[in-house]
């Protein structure tokens, strides 16, 4: 049993491993235990909805990575990773959600077997699905190892995308456009929200052309009216109403790569304060796209946006974007750079961000956003191509 | 701004809080910090896709719970929780995915302000989204507190469902039936898998009758042929093929309550070993349903299934089910009881399980499962009503 269809070339996986090993070397880490499902997939191709139990990939300086997980998921690893079958190892089913055993005890025993019991081992202490108890079980079972925090070490290697990755994100962008087109078309006063979401998810998974749709790492968020003062509400069965704005925060996803796109639709006649905010948000987006050039800082983009909003009297709090690419639930961000004033990361060609200067006010919300690619020179490219404005239906 | 439509009565939330406080008292915990989004929603009604950043609910013995989360999500809390607005408190946006600050430092400062700096505080060390680094930041910032592991404390209170909860699960079960009916109808040789999944998700969200569909905590898993030897693969764009079985593991979801249902469809003529396994799995399900009576043990159900499978020469590894109810990604299980031989939990009326004796063999998989309710007496009730067999299309 081997992998059935790896998303990327072996060359691409080699590139990723090389970058990660260099970062491990710089951090003085002899073995890196990667639990973030996005990092696992980026390094090995592993793909499955098994991240609700402990699992991980062990990266070593001079041997192929080892996939470690639940017995039941070993076949899934054999079907999806590029490594040979002897690099897939599992823990027994009786460890799963047990009140008396912890899977990390199995991992610790295996690490000791592999003569890593006294090694300097990096773990992703603040990445998803690495629990406080798992960490305690691992450190408690490996008293002679030096277990150090390597949060984000792999995530930082993912920032600059390869051509293969950018091609995936362009496919995701076509799907995002299709989802937004459908939402703009179908939202009408009186139509129940869940029916529109049902069609949006259908559009997302049907995809476009040769791009079948994968599940997005975040479900559609599309609050209306006063609910839109809260960015992260999903949906219910109530109908859309006249006199309310709805923003939709969605992403097309192709083989786990995302291209988020948000637009806002007002049913009726928008109030003046929303129209002023719309104009300021668009001006901020344009200023930010112009600032998103190689050599500039992440903070420069944030400053460009906030200055434009400030001229309209809007005090924008919080960051205005984050890196995107390969992701699993619960987040489609990469959790490294933030487009916020204090962030001094230098922008490089091939970096991709969800540029997202959302406004959530006391009784409405406005989201007009773009997925962007830092080019070799000049302003950023937007991966999607849809009018950058608030839409209005009378 | 108050909650727009609480899913449950105030009486129901009082019941939940009372049970949780009694368990805290028994565990000697003065304050319980709950981060599992399922537990947060069960206790307070909070509902939003914000669990990708640190957040939680603080349960206290003699005051209403406190919702704590990101500044941007405060409005979402005000829109969804039953507590008064002064019980919603937030941390500033600059803590979000920062490389220099951790949100748990904000929580620690607030706990100290609330005179809990020397208290005995329970945390969910092995529940979702409570990271090792968050735990280290909290314990490091509260040197005089006694921080103890309260993993699953709330989850265990959720096991026996109220009538209000069972009514929600019955609605979810109607949605599950609709999804399975659609899959059985639409899967044909040559049809691309993602197109069928797109329609299944549309069915899931459109719901049935007065039940709008919520997103399931796990996306559809429906591997075919040899891929079905791996239980947790999702989908891709390849067509269904004759001579292969596909199992589908799905759940309808109504207001976060799930009723998983799995069936298997063979395109063509099933081989004898699958037919034998099907007969044994059905016999195991029937024996297990009969054993799933109040007063029996969780392990009794597992033994009934394994005995039936053993008679057919099948050595079933792993548990055969887990409790279900309210859930958020990445899991629709409650992570307390396991239907495995060593589990001595006594079954009680009102408990609900996904009874799931799946078989994943070397080159195929077979899933025929039921969501079940432990009755006041007699065998368990199945929440869904669909033929309990492998389906075959010539």
Q: What does this protein look like?
A:
2 copies of one chain form a homodimer. With 394 residues, chain A is α/β, with parallel strands linked by helices. Chain A has 2 domains: 10-157, Creatinase/prolidase N-terminal domain (Creatine Amidinohydrolase, Chain A, domain 1, 3-Layer(aba) Sandwich), CATH 3.40.350; 163-393, Alpha-Beta Complex (Creatine Amidinohydrolase), CATH 3.90.230. Chain A is 33% helix and 17% strand. The first copy, chain A, contains 10 helices and 15 strands. Chain A has helices spanning 10-27, 37-44, 74-80, 103-113, 132-141, 153-157, 163-186, 193-206, 272-291, 298-311, and strands spanning 31-34, 56-59, 66-70, 88-91, 120-123, 146-149, 244-254, 257-267, 321-323, 352-355, 359-360, 365-366, 370-373, 381-382, 390-393. Chain A has a 6-stranded mixed sheet with strand order 4-3-2-1-5-6. Chain A has a 4-stranded antiparallel sheet with strand order 9-10-13-14, with helices on one face. In chain A, strand 13 and strand 14 form a beta hairpin. The longest helix of chain A has 24 residues, at 163-186. Chain A is globular. The model of chain A has no long low-confidence stretch (mean pLDDT 96). The interface between A and B is large, with 85 and 85 residues.
């Amino acid at each position: 049993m081997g992998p059935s269809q790896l998303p990327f070339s072996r060359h691409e996986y080699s590139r990723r491993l090389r970058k990660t090993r260099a970062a491990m070397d710089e951090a003085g880490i002899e073995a890196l235990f990667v639990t973030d499902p996005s990092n696992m997939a980026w390094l090995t191709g592993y793909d499955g909805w098994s991240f609700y139990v402990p699992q991980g990939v062990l990266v070593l300086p001079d041997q192929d990575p080892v996939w470690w997980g639940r017995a039941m998921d070993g076949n899934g690893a054999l079907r999806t990773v590029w490594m040979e079958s002897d690099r897939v190892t599992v823990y027994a089913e009786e460890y799963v959600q047990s009140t008396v055993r912890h899977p990390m005890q199995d991992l610790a025993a295996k690490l000791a077997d592999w003569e890593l019991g006294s090694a300097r081992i990096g773990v992703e202490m603040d990445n998803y699905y690495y629990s406080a108890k798992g960490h305690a079980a691992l450190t408690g079972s490996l008293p002679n190892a030096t277990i150090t925090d390597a949060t984000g070490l792999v995530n930082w290697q993912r920032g600059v995308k390869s051509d293969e990755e950018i091609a995936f994100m362009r496919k995701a962008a076509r799907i995002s456009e299709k989802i937004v087109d459908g939402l703009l078309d179908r939202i009408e006063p009186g139509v129940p929200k869940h029916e529109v979401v049902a069609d949006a998810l259908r559009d997302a998974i049907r995809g476009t052309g040769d791009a079948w749709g994968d599940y997005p790492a975040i479900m559609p968020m599309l609050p209306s009216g006063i609910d839109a003062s809260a960015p992260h509400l999903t949906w219910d069965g109530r109908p859309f109403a006249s006199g309310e704005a709805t923003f939709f925060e969605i992403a097309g996803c192709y083989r786990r790569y995302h291209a988020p796109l948000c637009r806002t639709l007002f049913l009726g006649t928008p109030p003046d304060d929303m129209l002023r905010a719309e104009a300021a948000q668009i001006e901020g987006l344009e200023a930010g796209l112009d600032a998103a050039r190689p050599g500039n800082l992440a903070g420069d983009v944030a400053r460009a946006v906030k200055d434009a909003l400030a001229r309209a009297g809007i005090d924008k709090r919080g960051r205005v974007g984050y890196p995107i690419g390969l992701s699993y639930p619960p987040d489609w961000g990469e959790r490294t750079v933030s487009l916020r004033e204090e962030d001094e990361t230098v922008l490089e060609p091939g970096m991709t961000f969800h540029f997202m200067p959302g406004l959530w006010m006391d009784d409405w919300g406005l989201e007009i956003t773009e997925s962007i690619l830092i080019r070799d020179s000049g302003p950023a490219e937007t991966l999607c191509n849809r009018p950058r404005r608030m839409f209005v239906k009378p």
